[in-house]
Amino acid sequence: MKFTIAAVLAFAASALAYPGNSQFDRRQNIPSVDAAIPAMSNRNGEVVPFNTAGVYQDAKAKGI
């Protein structure tokens, strides 16, 4: 009896863990920037290659 309950619970857990029936979406798209190079986010939240001339300075833009 204990083995049957454990087997059913294990089967249910493996069925729920299967990614094919996932109800969740990916949080982000596959990045277009290679992970081996430096990267940063622009003010729109997009990941772009690091460029010191293109760094958005929020405080400077707000006049602080």
**What series of H and E elements makes up the topology?**
HEEH
What percent of the residues sit in helical stretches (DSSP H or I)? 25-40%
Radius of gyration: 23 Å
Largest sheet: 2 strands, antiparallel
Number of separate strands: 2
Q: Widest sheet: strand order?
A: 1-2
Mean residue pLDDT: 78
Q: Helices and strands: which structural class?
A: alpha+beta
Quote the beta fraction: 5-15%
Q: How many H/I helical runs?
A: 2
| Oligomer type | single chain
Task: Report the span from N to C terminus.
Answer: 70 Å
Characterize the overall form: elongated
Low-confidence runs (pLDDT<50, min 5 residues)? none
Signal peptide: 1-17
Keywords: Signal
Describe the structure.
The chain has helices at residues 2-17, 58-62, and strands at 39-41, 47-49. The protein has 64 residues and is of the alpha+beta class. The chain has a domain at 34-59. Strands 1-2 form a two-stranded antiparallel sheet. Keywords: Signal. Residues 1-17 form the signal peptide.
Task: Write a concise keyword list for the protein shown above.
alpha+beta, elongated, 2 helices, signal, 64 residues
Tell me the layout of helices and strands.
Layout: H1 2-17, E1 39-41, E2 47-49, H2 58-62
Antiparallel strand pairs: 1-2
Please summarize what this structure is.
By secondary structure, the chain is an alpha+beta fold. The chain is built from two helices and two strands. Strand 1 (39-41) and strand 2 (47-49) form a beta hairpin.
